[in-house]
Amino acid sequence: MHDLYHELIKLAESDNYPLHMPGHKRNSMSTPFEGAFRCDITEIDGFDNLHDESGLILDAERRANKLYGAKETFFLVNGSTSGVLSAVSTAASMGGTILAARGSHKALYHAAYIRNLDIKYLPYKINTELEIPEAYTAEDIRPYLSKDIAAVFITSPTYEGKCSDIAEIAALCQEKNIPLIVDAAHGAHFGFGRPSDTDRSEKTSKDYASIPESAATQGADIVIHSVHKTLPSMTQTALIHINGELIDRNLLKRYLRIYQSSSPSYILMASIEQCMEEMEKNGAEYIDKLLGYRNYLAAETAALRNIRIPGPDEIDDPCKVLITDASGTMTGQEIYDILRTEYALQLEMAGTRTALAIITGSDTKEGIERLIAALKDIDTKIEETKQSNIERKKGNLLENPDRAEAIKTREIPPCKIKLSEAWDGMFEEISIDNAEGRISAEFINLYPPGIPIIVPGEMFTEEIVAEIKNCDDKNLNLQGIINIDKKVGAEIGVKVIVDF
Fold it and tell me: Three-state DSSP class for 358?
């Protein structure tokens, strides 16, 4: 077969000697990673060039494009991050304005920094029970489509599996002649599988009957997919899809060359190609396995008294298994920690109220069984804790009175200085206790997924200070804070702009 993967194998098995990069020279004696290194090459004759495709790589991109149904598709070897940077740089001129959800990936903010953009935010809607960002409708977005908006940036599905109404949002943006960029990094598996007779708009069943439609076929101008997140492909592999006439293809290609390595990995490109071939041949079976695992997990944990896993009426993506303790005894971080330390189950992420597991069609029945058994065991331990009347931890986030309100709009700190100016500005390090009223010089976010609590140029408010301290108290993975005394247990600090 004449494709990138098989040509790499043929080269590895030939007596062709490499007098070129990379330095390991495909020599098994130089590295323990023999299998991969045998196929690790540079742009040599007959193997095309990602940044000027005309042969094997172009053919592979066209096959991927046909599979997803967009107008054009390009391979990404620097992950969806390079796709987001390229998309925003193409759609928004230097110094322009972009409309975005606050819960966007940090790559959106990095693009705004590089391009000196202003970011206008959509209301930051939060599901208060699960403490996760909500999805958007066209009516959520309509009031904010002013004439200065160069592009709209939406994340769908979100990290936690919520899907916005992309078709309606795309139609609205087209009506206003504004390009829509969809960060669908977590939705590369959408659109595969068998057609379902179930009307997903009703979402009354406890089972997942199908998966959502791909954003690439719903009218978005640019869609970015991380192939590696939910499909059988290597880390860093991604795709960017282009539709419509609002995007300058030549300009996009320029930015893809800027934001991606000039020495793209042929192993990664072959991994994308093989993943696409697998999904073309067996995509329905892959999704069937995913749905089977997800519904089996739901059935086996439905009777638990404390552990709760939201179903299709709350979470659109069956890959995303949010685990929460409905009794309020355990935080998401505690669930995450106990699954890792006591059951050798490494989850994706811990939040304030939920722990997130990701399952795919590549999982095994044994792995799902282990998760089920662990959750049943943890549920029993929670019940025993409740029965013995052990006092909950002071300040447990699950006791937050906001739970009475299903969806709440969270405060976005007031912006006082442009991001690009603030991040490059002179700063000092101060205690978080003295931060109220000062201007942040650094991003502070929970990672993963990297959604900012505060952005450079924004002012610390009483609420933001409290949120940062609360997250630190819960031992959540905060990025951007500093340890003032450089020792364990010391007071946390933040970077603020000098003389402002």
Answer: strand
